[in-house]
Structure formats: C-alpha cells, structure tokens
Specification:
By secondary structure, this protein is an all-alpha fold. The chain has a domain at about 1-25. It has two helices and no strands. The longest helix is centred in the first third of the chain and has 21 residues, at about 5-25. The protein is flat and about 90 Å long. The termini are far apart.
Length: about 80
C-alpha cells in the first residue's frame, strides 16, 4: 500500500470515530431537553412613550468662522552666500 492510501484510510477512520463520539452509540442526534421551555419568564416591562419635543427650524448653535485661516509662522531665511 502506498502512503496516500494509508493517509486516506486513516482520515476516514478518524472521521468515523469522531462521528460516533459526537452522536453516541445510537447514531441519533441528542434529544433536546424541555428545561429551557418550561422556565416561566417575567413579562416584559411596559415602555411608555417619550414626550415629544418641538424641533427648532434653525440650528441652535451657529457655526463660527475664523477671521483668517490658520497660517504657519513666517520665518526669515538667511541671506544667500555671494
């Protein structure tokens, strides 16, 4: 037998063992337990509607425009060599 055949057979065997381990010996999925469905849940709280507020037509805060845009400070350059 070549190595490839042995690798394929071992992968199939591991998959079968994993399937039996997951499903058990009956080969059926586990039966869901009714514990979670039988728990009494409290009624959800009643949500009251929030009072409506009048929305202004214009913005409350006016944008501020600077008088001049921000500029980096101007530095004098050294005189060129003659």
């Amino acid at each position: 037998m070549s190595r490839m055949v042995l690798i394929v057979v071992s992968i199939v065997a591991i998959a079968l063992l994993g399937g039996f381990a997951a499903l058990g010996l009956t080969a059926h999925p586990p039966v869901p337990q009714p514990v979670h469905r039988d728990l009494p849940l409290p009624a959800p709280p009643v949500i009251q509607a929030a009072p409506t507020l009048a929305v202004p037509d214009a913005p409350v805060i006016t944008p501020v425009v600077p008088a001049a845009p921000a500029q980096p400070p101007v530095q004098q350059q050294a005189p060129a060599h003659p």
